[in-house]
Amino acid sequence: MATDTSTHGVPGTATSIQESTKTPLPGPKHPLDPLTPDEIVAVSFSVRNYTAAYTEIKAIRFITTYLLPPPKKDVLAYLRIPLSTGAEPGPVPTIVRKAEADFIDVVTGDSYNTILALEDGVWKVEAVDKLPDGVQAQISVEELLMCEEIIRHDERVIKLAKDVGVESHQLFADGWAVGYDDRFPKKNRIQQAIIFARYSEHDNLYAHPLDFVPVVDSVAKKVIHIDWPPQFTKKSSESTLNFASAGKDTSLNTATTAPPTLGSSAQELQRERIPPPKEPQNFLPDLIQETQPNFKIRDDIKPLHVVQPEGVSFKMNGHELEWQKWKMHIAFHHREGVVLSTVTYNDDGVIRPLFYRLSLAEMLVPYGAPEHPHPRKHAFDAGEYGMGTMANELALGCDCLGQIHYLPGAFVKHDGSAFVIKNVICIHEEDHGLLWKHTDYRVGGRSHAVRSRRLVVSMICTLANYEYIWNYYFYQDGSAELEIRLSGILQVYVNSKDEPNPFGSTVAPGINAQYHQHLFSVRLDSMIDGLNNTVVETDVLPLDAPTGSIHNFAGNGFFTRETPITKAKDGAREYSVQTDRRWIITNPEHQHPASKKNVGYAIGMKGGVCKMMAKEDSWVVKRAGFTQKDLWVVKDVEGPKGSRMWPSGKYVPGTRGEHQDEFITSWVRGEDNLVGEDLLVYLTVGTTHIPRPEDWPVMPVEMLRVSFKPFHFFTANPSLDLPGANDTHSGPAFPNGEAAACCSNSN
């Protein structure tokens, strides 16, 4: 195990590298445990041996290696989870551990997918399939780092940077998938390099954007083209494009927002150079003090400690967690980040299945500037890069507070060894205020209060400039929540002096933070009291009868209308503010004893609904059809490589709208039944970001949430058995303060 990250090229998010393996490999504790570093190395060894012996492939670059999950019903039977609450679990099956790997032939540039099975402690290759021409596997961390090295050594880039006062050693680049660009063959594995200058070791490089965009071939390891974004101007002429008819009184110094031909040059475009802003815009305190002598860290914040003198209330068995009445499996995934599986709730001794799998399936960040090459900036941060591969090593007392348990993560390196992130998933408990309280206001009445404790499962990912914090919360009333926090640094471009900025905000002199959106596809594989579920759409409607009528004399009546989603063709749904629409995942085989309604869990996404701003036939929507609807209900279809998973397809980099049969939009066609079936629910949530100077140079968190609440699921409030609030360590804030004992009249 190597730990010197500088000599081995380990990115700042990883801890170390696993280079050797044990033989034979021990079996996992749980069928959904992620591949260990040893297993990743062993898989690489088997793939190399197989390709050397049975193929013409001469050199391999590994891109991804991960667990291929066993069939759903086999996992449930193995874990003794019933297919329907109250039924007997199925017979315990024999589960074969399998792995899937993607790699590139670095000689031809072809991509391959491999399936392996673990037999007697040794990984054996079952299949090696060449992917169709133009289909590209995820962009690796090493390729992103490679992009920066390539532009630093390209003579054209060096000269162009020097022309605006930037030396080659000051050049830095964020590699982005090229998105959509018909000028380049799909077979090429290319990135666009968003480049910046850094004038000192830890200087905020995003404060110094450059005015051109190199395009890099990751296999050939060279710059193949340079793009020049045009400039906006207040003047208009025959050679400029005026935006007055589009609602903006400004002009572009080119006649179109379309891409120029590959032979065009800056001179042909009459493109003036824009030197990068040189003023430091730092967020590290010591660097701020260098340029702002009066800057000081606040000294009026007293310590606030999270203390659990008797330890935590949860138990861990490998990747399996038990807390209060919850039980679940927690795993690292190179693409989705945190994956929660086989989530159940112990309801007075009855194990009730809730979610088979919960994760982030895709994420898109489309930018709103129409002039080329900015429309290429629509990053699929999960499908193109991977949330797990970009995850942070978490620090105790910084990223998570209190008594913390960490889980590790690992993903494959180009050479087949394993990157290891030692503390990638954080698990802890938090106080969450009052869970419930009531006071009888009458004389002599009693009151009772119960505080809320929640379990937190979290991960932080750095996608170049942006940070994403994923918090999965579980509560003592049987509800759950996914909270997404956005932070980090705005993605910016350079503006010349007095240049209009119609599609962004000027957050500092010369710094253009373009308008953009963050859109997330949350995948929920439900098993509410079993696998046979139905999604019901509920609208809240005012009574049609007019005020003064015999049916609605006071005019205040309203009711709910429930509509089951019955056919595949009806599976794409939109949120309605007017009807306060919500969706409930129900089980028609189980009813509440009092209400007689089917048991269910309600999805709360009111604050997270976000309309996609791009046109329906735009480049980005051709690749991201999932953004067109707020909720998708589809029937799960398990094949040799698992369930339906990826709303924009399994292989995302470089796609231009082809392979639509692999997209979620093709799963909502036809007459297939959706009532009482094994269902998947995809939620599209997000936020539209109109940047402000207060977001610069680093952004305070912005939050959005999705909730899952029991709905006619429990007989009554499931948190009635919680002890009353009584924290003896709480006290008055000041010496002369007075405070009554907690709920002193509750007994």
From TrEMBL:
Cofactor(s) the protein requires to work: Mn(2+); Cu cation; Zn(2+)
PROSITE patterns: COPPER_AMINE_OXID_1, COPPER_AMINE_OXID_2
Record's signal peptide: none
GO molecular function, one term: copper ion binding
Domain Copper amine oxidase N3-terminal: 139-232
Top-level EC class as recorded in UniProt: oxidoreductase
Chain positions found as 2',4',5'-topaquinone: Y466
Modification after translation: Topaquinone (TPQ) is generated by copper-dependent autoxidation of a specific tyrosyl residue.
Catalytic activity: a primary methyl amine + O2 + H2O = an aldehyde + H2O2 + NH4(+)
Cofactor detail note: Contains 1 topaquinone per subunit.
Domain Copper amine oxidase catalytic as annotated: residue spans: 304-720
Segments for region (Disordered): 1-33
Keyword terms: Copper, Manganese, Metal-binding, Oxidoreductase, TPQ
Entry-linked InterPro entries: Cu_Am_Ox_Cu-bd, Cu_Am_ox_TPQ-bd, Cu_amine_oxidase, Cu_amine_oxidase_C, Cu_amine_oxidase_C_sf, Cu_amine_oxidase_N-reg, Cu_amine_oxidase_N3
Residue ranges, compositional bias (Polar residues): 1-23
TM segment ranges: none
Active-site residues (renumbered): D381 (proton acceptor), Y466 (schiff-base intermediate with substrate)
Family: Belongs to the copper/topaquinone oxidase family.
Protein name stated in the entry: Amine oxidase
